[in-house]
Amino acid sequence: MLGTTDSATSPNFSGPLKAFPPVPDGITPGDVRTRRPALRDLTTPLVTVDESAIAHNIETMRAWCERAGVGLAPHGKTTMNRVLWQRQLDAGAWGITVATPWQLSVALGWRIPRIMLANALVQPAYLRLVSDALRDTDTDTRIVVWADSLRAVEIMDAVLREASGAENAALGAEAGRPEAAEAAGTARPLEVLVELGQHGGRTGARTHEEAIAIASAISASPALALAGVAGYEGALAHHGDEASLAIIRGYLNRLADLDDALRDSYDPRIESVIVTAGGSAYFDVVAEVLSPRHAPAEGREVLMRSGAYISHDDGFYRGITPLGRSGEANFRSAIHGWSTVVSRPEPGIALLDGGKRDLPFDEGLPEVQGVRRFGQETLEELPGASVTAMNDQHTFLALPADSTLRVGDVVRLGLSHPCTTFDKWRALIVIDDVRAEHPLATDVLYTEFG
């Protein structure tokens, strides 16, 4: 099953969930698996997740990585769903990437075996949490973080050494060995990747020399282990033209040069050296430049961090995905919005009952994909209709003057940007196949956003 209704991952929500009809009609999250209600029986606004597309996308990315000769540590921030993360792991992913210390804590709670925080970790409370995880003898979770400054290394070293010292002192006192208080370092070191950036980009050391200095500081700390290099190319370009691809290649070659410079400095205590880059827009260029470095049998792994592929979209990622450039079997959008017409105040305007609180708008407005007439189940075309604006709880449609769209009809919307789709919903309805004549709801997918 795509989602889950198990108590371990189903929060005890205090109110009714969007998209579930109120009593007495009563389709509860727990009913969905057994009753498999028709899509038309659910209320709007609604976002659905297409199981057939999710399965297709996971397999498409797995096969692509295998052909390209790279590993995958998919970004979990897209979905923040334990079941989807596990499906990615089951398909061969190295581990899960997270974006924030809080997401790291969720991944630790979900017992993800390998976790990469694609960010600096400088908050003392979360460093102490990581210190506890590294000393936990019941798990061998591999935790990898990034650093792009000497100050970040200084903070990590100080907090981890302090945390370990306090723990060792307590253990020493229990055992009647106060000398244990002098021990420093964690049971396992925290693995750190040097992040290389570029002027005009996001985070990351701006020069080769700064990155080398950061690596030296990591190596000097007994609590840390220099484990590789990292970067993010997606902020450097936003198109798939040759000029944009040249910018991406130039940056990735700089990352490769940094890896070469640090080859003799990597910590022997680590499981493998990691070279990581690759969002959802340029993973083909990442593989082109970095895949020769991928040699797991020799303790070296090139890991992409693409995350949006799992659901794909009908907007930004559809337009920039490398599979669209290459002509290979492409991903399919697994996310769709459904919204009811609640007003036809003028001949050329309709207002829908879903807005910015329900549907993404930061990477492009939703696109109209069809209409389900009031009381009907099948989808019809809706020619000439387009989304022109969104309010918090309404979406504006522009229509031809002779449009037959009526109040009560339900419009299907293609959505742009998965990351700001999932985080608007505590629970999303899973349907079997959006292409089916009569789609059925089959499961519920719960998200874990703070």
UniProtKB/TrEMBL annotation:
Keywords annotated in UniProt: Lyase
Record-level Gene Ontology MF annotations: lyase activity
Transmembrane domains' residue ranges: none
Cited Pfam families: Ala_racemase_N, D-ser_dehydrat
Origin superkingdom: Bacteria
Annotated spans, Disordered: 1-35
Name of the protein described by the UniProt record: Amino acid deaminase
Family: Belongs to the DSD1 family.
Natural source organism: Mycetocola lacteus
